[in-house]
From TrEMBL:
It comes from Gynuella sunshinyii YC6258. Pfam families: HDOD (PF08668). It comes from the Bacteria. Residues 25-211 form the HDOD domain. This is Putative signal transduction protein.
Length: 286
């Protein structure tokens, strides 16, 4: 066995140990669990829910930015937390709480890991922004659900990074990509179950990158997130081998006017709404 084969086995062993003991994976903040529990309590009014939200100024900033963003197109967005909760509704507040929590879960010390994390997070935010735009324009699905799913699409990659953070020799790019292919979706599913998210979110993650699969004729959350991921991979020159977008199952569900493709193989609507996508990305950076 060569040294490199030995390292490859070490990486797999570390990841398999983490999969066997999910307690080693990042947990959602207690404040997020408290807020999600409050959202599901029908006896708790908007004022009480707003008071819980207000304990975290960062989350309040996200709510204020969200309700004023192009996602909602409100000429006069509310400014108080209780009014924002009333306008958005409990389910949207719940999903935005998840969006807010995700970024804070992964902290890395090594320069190499920080660089990989930055690239992965940038791609996740771009995926989320493009997916939300497509969902808003062409579906009736919950846009906040799409925002969250777009960010979670890279959860398996981030989980593998987290599992390897104590390893002295970080894998090469090819090795890391292979580990993500082998373990990414399984690790993501384990984390989502640990966080008590519903099966629909897990389905979206498991469907990511399955370019030719289609369960219905209607654009679903999984479809728009897959289209967002495809365009993000193209935009970031990820090196992934991608089929022409015209062969992607979700593409064929778009209205004909939305099927225009630019010379780079990306949906033209993405370029046409660049400013709106950037505003959504900015929202996710709060």
């Amino acid at each position: 066995m060569t040294y490199f084969d030995h390292l490859s086995n070490v990486y797999r062993s570390v990841i398999q140990q983490v999969m066997a003991d999910p307690a080693q994976l990042p947990s959602l903040p207690a404040s997020t669990f408290e807020l999600r529990k409050a959202v599901q309590n029908p006896d708790l009014g908007n004022e009480a829910l707003a008071a819980i939200c207000s304990r975290d100024p960062g989350f309040v900033a996200l709510l204020v930015s969200a309700v004023a963003s192009p996602l909602y197109n409100r000429a006069h967005p509310p400014s108080t937390v209780s009014a924002i909760v009333g306008v958005l509704g409990r389910e949207k507040v719940d999903r935005l709480a998840m969006v807010y929590s995700i970024k804070s879960l992964f902290v890395f010390r090594s320069i190499r890991m920080k660089k990989v994390y930055s690239q992965v997070w940038e791609r996740a935010v771009l995926t989320s922004g493009i997916s939300a735009l497509l969902a808003k324009k062409y579906t009736r699905v919950n846009v906040e659900e799409v925002l969250m799913a777009g960010l979670l699409i890279e959860l398996g990659t981030l989980a593998i990074l987290s599992a390897l953070k104590e390893v002295s020799d970080f894998p090469s790019t090819d090795e890391f990509d292979q580990l993500c292919k082998e373990y990414g979706k399984s690790l993501a599913a384990i984390m989502l179950k640990k966080w008590m998210l519903d099966d629909q979110v897990i389905h979206v993650i498991k469907s990511s990158g399955c370019w030719f699969d289609s369960l219905s004729d209607q654009l679903s959350i999984a479809d728009v997130v897959n289209l967002g991921l495809y365009c993000a991979l193209k935009r970031t020159n990820s090196g992934h081998q991608l089929p022409p977008i015209t062969e992607v199952a979700a593409y064929r569900k778009l209205p004909q006017a939305a099927q225009v493709v630019d010379r780079y193989g990306i949906l033209a609507v993405v370029n046409d709404h660049e400013e709106e996508i950037r505003s959504i990305q900015k929202l996710l950076a709060v």
